[in-house]
């Protein structure tokens, strides 16, 4: 369908039917988008907001579906950006439509708009509002003509002011499209049209044929912001409210245009952690895991030319193992030590708190990660959002979130090549953790190319853990860390931290037993901070059992034998 045909169709349908059937039958191809967009904008210009919105919806959907099929990240990003801009336009048109509807609901009567005989027989026309200060001028689109198709020539049925406007819009749109400046199309088309007004009336000189009805109102309407003004203003607002110029590191702030401001704030506040402040030295043992993570993340940053082609960096790393073994700490240390921006997401955040918005959050998250690259996205408890697909109990929303994560991970090129603009691809690494690796969807498992096991601490690590945990408290001379470390075989790092905390509070508990609140308050700090004894540690160990069973360990071993990738 060429532009004229499409437009003729659209014009015929305006007024004939609230939902023109041809829209529903329209082929949804990406090639059809420019034409559809042209029609959508023309419909908006002529005040047929319902039809314009239908077109916009179809366009947004087409772009979204198409973007999913584009493997080139930068190209896909550009499509998604275009989609964001169009959805802003869509929103503005929707707002205008709603505003207009609210005018229509007001009764026509003494305190409303008066009707006068129109130069067009079948067209409603409005005179001046009775009280201009109280009642705003109705939006000119309310006066839109109802066009009817004739055998002779469709355009004959258009009043000349509208025909001139449409023709000039189309020709300028064509010219601009040829120059490849799509943005200019809307600007010139809309500003010329002033949404249902006319060029001639804007200059105060009526056109050659009958001027548009309700000239005074049209003039008044011209002082109102145009579609383009509103889009531009909304973008400005977004920038002002969402994105100050630079962050604390002097990096340009993420421009959340096109996204719900609240979502951008949520991600910035709850997920983005620029400095998690955990060092390798804060983590006991796990030497293998540390060096693997370093290799996966630091080396590609240091030697980008080496990590090309088959040696591209890993897209994702899965850390699995019993609970409390330091997986979260490792992820934080990666971000601190490697200087990457850290996005800390727990899957439960996505599945509960923002149900409904979860997919948008995932999209936003990856977009922000690319903006602040090099970035590490840490997804804890990934099994709860990416469990095996198609299970009966699977919720539709979590299925969509899962698909979005997979799609976004595919978008991480993993190569350090250059994009169409000659810029280096941003490095975004997904680091996931789970205590239930057997629940993970196989498609996700494949994308998490490195799958490493974070084990229970061995003897040396347990000793180191005791040392780390006890460095800020006093311990009695009878405490031998080596002996203690042997006694707590089978305990996780988190269990050991609990034991140390409990033991360090034993002397205080003994000291305050049987005392009144008054007496407790009068105890000196020195007395309370008596060193933890061997007896205290033994009491703590007898109270706290290991949180990991042998059966669990066996299951991890079996899974790693089958799917592990070091
Ligand atoms: N290797 C370690 N070095 C230092 N502290 C550790 C280590 N392992 C565990 N801990 C302690 O255990 C706590 C829990 O660790 P972390 O949250 O990293 O475990 P996790 O494996 O992510 O647990 P979960 O699977 O339950 O989320 C830490 O805050 C820390 O006190």
From TrEMBL:
The keyword Transmembrane does not apply. Its EC number is 5.6.1.1. Pfam families: AAA, AAA_lid_3, KATNA1_MIT, Vps4_C. InterPro entries: AAA+_ATPase, AAA_lid_3, ATPase_AAA_core, ATPase_AAA_CS, KATNA1, KATNA1_MIT, MT-severing_AAA_ATPase, P-loop_NTPase. Residues 182-208 have a biased composition (Low complexity). Belongs to the AAA ATPase family. Katanin p60 subunit A1 subfamily. This is Katanin p60 ATPase-containing subunit A1.
